[in-house]
Amino acid sequence: MVYKTYDELPLFIDVKxxxxxxxxxxxxxxxxxxxxxxxxxxxxxxxxxxxxxFIKWVNDNVGG
Length: 64
Known about the structure:
about 60 residues, alpha+beta, about 15% strand
């Protein structure tokens, strides 16, 4: 699925969605989600990112 705005994102974002939104590989998304600075929430073996935390992370990491 192609997301055009943050409003279209699900409440919790999985690896597949992180990969799609950021335009990176799935393995790159897994690597990112294992970084301490990335707001990952672990639910058992599953990793997700709360939508609001993902948006904040993107805004905080936009370089210029």
